[in-house]
Design goal:
Elements (H helix, E strand, L loop, with lengths): L3 E6 L4 H11 L4 E3 L2 E3 L8 E4 L2 E6 L4 H12 L3 E4 L6 H10 L4 E3 L6 H9 L5 E3 L5 H16 L8 E8 L8 H12 L10 E3 L2 H8 L9 E9 L6 E9 L2 H19 L6 E2 L1 H7 L1
Length: 276
Amino acid sequence: MDRIKVMVNGIPGNVAVNLFRHINADNRFELLHYSLTGPEITDTEYRCDDSTIRLLQPDLRDGFMPGILKTAGSFISVDFTHPSAVNANAEFYSRWNLPFVMGTTGGDRDHLEAVVRNSELSAVIAPNMAKQIVAFQAMIDFAARSFPELFKGYSLQVRESHQKGKADTSGTARAVVSSFQQLGIDFSMADIDQERDPETQKSEWGIPEEYLTGHAWHTYTLTSEDRTTKFEFTHNVNGRDIYARGTMDAIEYLHHQLQKNDRGTVFTMMDVLRGI
């Protein structure tokens, strides 16, 4: 069986580097030693274990693509870059007909999906690549659709903590809050309590020091009006391995869909879960 060719974009970012290492150790895949990176990155190369990766800033990447495509042929791009780059990167993938897995949160998500649907490529787009957390989101979404306003009158507190470098509010938290709103809870996305200070995370949250630079802790607390009843949902992730494993499944799923000549389709991690 031919290995799936993959370009991991976002290096030297921590998530992208971690994913690169996981893919490099998996016989299902063959890595391209190129990575789209941000304009603030001045290095032209990044050394990851035994691999040297050529970093392509926005003003260079179009010039490199003909040579990459001539050498590599077809491949899947994986995006773990920056929220500010989401839409420009999607336009780039569309321009070069590069199917992709978008793990980066933020950006104009409606426009992102429209770019794919109006193109000759397909993509997996998800705010969270961790399969188990995606399944949790699906459970809450099922409740919201099946029992609307079940929690009407309840109050909601949402606390989420991520490493200092995470620029935006958790996409997972926003998705879960949206379901709770359908369940009848009056809550604004602006009321999500997000923590990015390492000292507070360590002293008040109890997050292990070795994971302060890479974690995702979420707690959703629902309390009845008379305060006699409370429901609490928590999912705490230390490190980034869970996202790498889910992303690799997403790559394989997208590859199989492309083999069926599926074009212009936006897939989610729920599609991946159903397909693995």
